[in-house]
Structures are given as structure tokens and as C-alpha cells.
Amino acid sequence: MAGGAHHSDWKTNRERSMKAEMNTASYNSDAECWDALQRRDKDADGVFWYSVRTTGVYCRPSCAARPAKRENVAFHDSCAAAEQAGFRPCLRCKPDQPPLAERHALVVARACRLIDASETEPDLDSLADACGMSRFHFHRIFKAHTGITPKAYAAAQRAARVAHGLARAASVTDALYAAGYNSSARFYAGAEGRLGMAPKKYRAGGAGAVIRFAIGDCTLGAILVAATDKGICAILMGDDPEQLARDLQDRFPAAELHGADAGFEDTVAKVVGLVEAPALGLDLPLDVRGTAFQQRVWAALRQVPSGTTVSYAELAARIGLASGARAVAGACAANPVAVAIPCHRVVRNDGALSGYRWGVERKRALLDRERD
User: Is 59 a catalytic residue?
Assistant: First the structure.
């Protein structure tokens, strides 16, 4: 634990140092520091601090305290410098501590470790007490940083433990009790939704699950369409048909993969039609599985109208995760059904095209088709 904490502190200090090095050029005069202070620029936090002569305190630039008059403000390059000048840390922004977002992230990380280590699902009050927060405040902070509630996170972790244990335990019952379920009925009630198939079938590595698939051509290259009896489970695009088939096998290593039959041609034709004209939409059911957070992002993506784009930050805000642009980008990258879940409609904050799992040129082509 001590070694891990030391590494974490070193990493945090290094990140702050790197941030300071990157931003110093923007705040190398009192006039620039004052301008940043007027804007409550969060990027200036950790680069400089300011003190107020009339109150005797010093703050970080983003502090929400009432603005001070310029003649009462001085700037310092460290907390130590401000304290040596006789100022005490502000009780509101706590400039001598890590930034609020970082403190919240540490709280959430601690809660996740407590959930991961618990044999049974911890209740909300216990988690909040362990993190030194009220029940309401802890719940809000956890959801803001992860995109899901503590209960949903705990449920996902238990389901993951069951999935891991099914291949090793003597029986399904042993696996679910070892994962923390105190009732087999509670587990079986939603087992297929969590595992993607019946527990016994999952325990057998997915053996017996039938997936029909076909590989064809479209104007964007090779395309693979695969479906279970519940709906389309994969739409993959690329330049190498054989690689697409290998990707499908990697996704479903123990399922029975059946090459296209005559009855599957209509499904493939509809998907190819979607690629050629994305604005038409797809009226076929989907059978996609992901984490609770990924499902939320994918659902939000399907609400983005054809012909429009949204930034990763904007999409994160739509699901209530204001600082979750990077997590949203990860969920987009995990999307298993190209175009049907339109992750191609997500762009950078400046409107430029960013990475796309199936190639930026395909992303550009899809967006151009939607705008025509």
C-alpha cells in the first residue's frame, strides 16, 4: 500500500508539474494572471495562486469567492510562497489541497475499491461514511464521475465476478454465491441481460449460441453483418474480409457461426442500405451487450439526429457526466455495430474529425452522405 501511495503521489505531482510547464507561458505576467483570475480559469489552477490583502487568505484562480479589487491582489508561484507572505488557505477552494475534481476522483476510486473488495454489496450509507460524505453528496459525486450509480457499479462488478467464476466453480449456484448474490432468484431474474445468454450456456463458453453472419461489399469496403436470434450483434467494416471474420470469431469464440443463408440476405441488404444512406436509419432490432455506462452512451448516440454532429464533451453532458469526454470516447470505440449506433456523428470540440474505429475516411464519408 505504501509503495502504491508513493507512486500515486509521484504521478500526481509529475502531472501538476507538466501542467505548470505547459501553461506557464500563458501566465508569465501579473496582467495575464489577473486576466485568468477574472475568468476564473481552471487551467491556471496549480500554475499560480493569488492572495487578497483585505481578507488575509490565498486562493486558487478558479475560486468562486467574491472578486477582489485589483489593488488588494498579489500573485504567488506556490502555496508555500503565499503562506510565507502571511496568508492562510481559503476554506472555500482549499488551494493547499488537490483540485476539487481530483479530490472527488480519489473519493470515487476509494468507493470502487471498497465495492470491489466487499463480498456483499455495500449499502449507500456505509460507502458515504467511509468516504466522509453525506449520502446525497456521495451519490451525486459518484454518478458524476462514473456515469452510473454506486448500486449499478456494484451490480456490474458482481456480474463480472459471476462471469469469471462460472468457468471455474463446480456449479452455477456456487459461482453466484461466491460473487456475492444472497439469492439465486435475484441472479436468475436478469441473468441473460447481464451475461448475454443463459448462465449454463455461458458456463459452457457460449457453446450452442448460434450467430448467422455474412460478409459483403459496400462503397466503403468490406462489411460483415452478424446476428443472433435476438437481433444484430455486429456490424464491422474494413479492407480485409478475412480479418473481419477473425474479429467476429474473437468476439464469440465458443458460439456456432453459420455462414449466410438465403433468409439472411434481407438483413444484410438493409444494413448495406444503411451504410449507403445513413439518414434512412435501421428498423432492425439490435443485440448488443456492454457495461451499464457503454449502454448509456450508445443510447444517447442513437438520439443524435442524422446530418448533425456532437462533441465528446457535449455527449458526456447529455448523459450527466460533465467531465467524462474521455470515458465517452472509450464507449464509442467499443461500439460493436457501425452506423446503427452512429458513433461517426461524434467529433472533437473544434468540429474536426477524430479517430474512428473503422477509419477516419469512412467517418468523413458517412457524415458527407448524411449532409447531402
Answer: yes
